[in-house]
Amino acid sequence: MTSISSILIVGAGQAAAVAASALRDHGYSGRITVVGNEAHAPYERPPLSKSVLAAVDIPEPAIAVKAPDFFHSQQVDLRLGVEVSALDASARQAVLSDGTRLGYDRCLLATGGTARALPAFPASSPAVHYLRTLDDARALRARLRPGQHIAVVGGGFLGLEIASTALGLGVDVSIVETAPRVLARVVPPIFSAWMQERIAQYGAKLYTGQAIADVQLPDDAGQPAILGLTDGTRIQAAAVVVAIGLAPSTQLAGGAGLRVDVSNGGITVDAHCRSSDPYIYAAGDCTSQTRADTPLPLRLESWQNANEQARIAACAMLGQDAEPAAYPWFWTDQFDCNIQMLGLPRPDLDYIVRGSLDSSSDSPRFIMLGLHDGKPYQALAVNAGGDLRALRPLLERALPIEAAQFADESMTVRAYAKAVQALAATPG
Amino acid sequence: MNWIKIASVDQIAADESLAIEVQGKQLALHQCDDELFITDNVCTHQYALLSDGFLEDGCIECPLHQAKFDLRTGQAMCAPATVGVQTYPVKTEGQDIFVAL
Fold this sequence. Notes:
The complex is a heterodimer of chains A (428) and B (101).
Chain A: E1 6-10, H1 14-25, E2 31-36, H2 70-73, E3 76-80, E4 84-88, E5 93-96, E6 101-103, E7 106-109, E8 113-115, E9 128-129, H3 134-141, E10 149-153, H4 157-168, E11 172-177, H5 189-201, E12 205-208, E13 212-216, E14 225-229, E15 234-237, E16 239-242, E17 246-248, H6 251-255, E18 267-269, E19 280-282, E20 287-289, H7 303-317, E21 329-334, E22 337-342, E23 350-355, E24 366-372, E25 375-382, H8 385-396, H9 403-407, H10 413-425
Parallel strand pairs in A: 1-2, 1-7, 2-3, 7-19, 9-16, 10-11, 10-16, 11-12, 18-20
Antiparallel strand pairs in A: 4-5, 5-6, 8-17, 13-14, 14-15, 21-22, 22-25, 23-24, 24-25
Chain B: E1 3-8, E2 16-22, E3 25-32, E4 35-40, E5 54-56, E6 59-61, E7 68-70, E8 87-88, E9 90-93, E10 96-100
Antiparallel strand pairs in B: 1-10, 2-3, 3-4, 4-8, 5-6, 6-7, 9-10
């Protein structure tokens, strides 16, 4: 076995921190260098659109991935505010923006991505905001004042979370989404419908099936932006937040000749998170990977995926076996609901519901199972995370579901899940 | 030790957690692998009740973001939690379950 004495991690976000930690946990005592272009030590991004954005007259919550002394005590060389400008894959060297060259035995690309930009909304404009970094969140937070009106372009998870947080701060919100419904790519129509009712309850104006037809952006922050929609509606907003997705950062990979997926734009990796170069791995938002049940490679933008791929890449680099990736799981907190998703969206699922789809309740609670041939592949839970967790083995094993039994609330979900597994265990 | 009765054994099923309020404290009583444990009920990561969570392998998993805590020591076992929960001594006498605060 080749001995590895130096590992370079490009990027200093969630995947990078978890990978560095996993390397040490798995007995690697060689050099680890983490290079990130942000000024902050690795931090968690999910709170940026929630508690960080909401911290208007209260202290900002701590969001560091690792305790402050982690990098020092674990001898991880953390270089912040530095870019890797190129990877020389044949020499196994990285060229840094400060001119230095760093040799590596193995390299992990944990470069994440940048907020996808709309040309009509340049980030340099004072009224325009994108949200990917802590600095972005702070800048947006400074614009959120009660009674102001903001426009959110994009009705995906991030746009809706931003809208929810802004409403909670007394800001009026208009949301513009080009698809006929919110969250169109990831949830069934029945869930979008419930979500849209909830959004209306909270007082946001939602424009679906509308694109931005024209924009007038002010020269200074004191003036409003004016958006014209395709149907002629005009929206005046103190600020416009554009949340239309993530562009994965793959310039280094491309420059090094690594395979990058044409459809999803991510760095192609195998089940061990190895790229097309055997010395270079990738993890997190920047990767494209074919998973056990998916016919096509996916770029999975989730906190869990960053953690799981970081762990798997670290083990693979050290030539160790890793537990396989956990069943895909995702959460979003918005409009006073904790919404969780298990599994990946598929167009061929029939959905059954347990609980009530009442959007007006203070604390709605229901679970939806998406079935194909009577077997569950995706589950959506609102304020029912513990129950969803109990259902997980049913999805992992694709156990047959009887709809009436699932929906019957006289039996707890845990008892139901146990019964289904017990049935599967009995022969014949 | 100041033992306070909080529940009876028939109130808690196997692999279940129960929310209990004692002297203004929000606690969770857990029965995992035939053993009883008591922890604070509020997750240290974000406001969520561990009694709504999931018990497995000697840990309680928070229902909001799946932070795991060791039932015996209260230690935070995985992200996103970094701070452990407080645990309390528990004893059973006959049908009654007691916590020591």
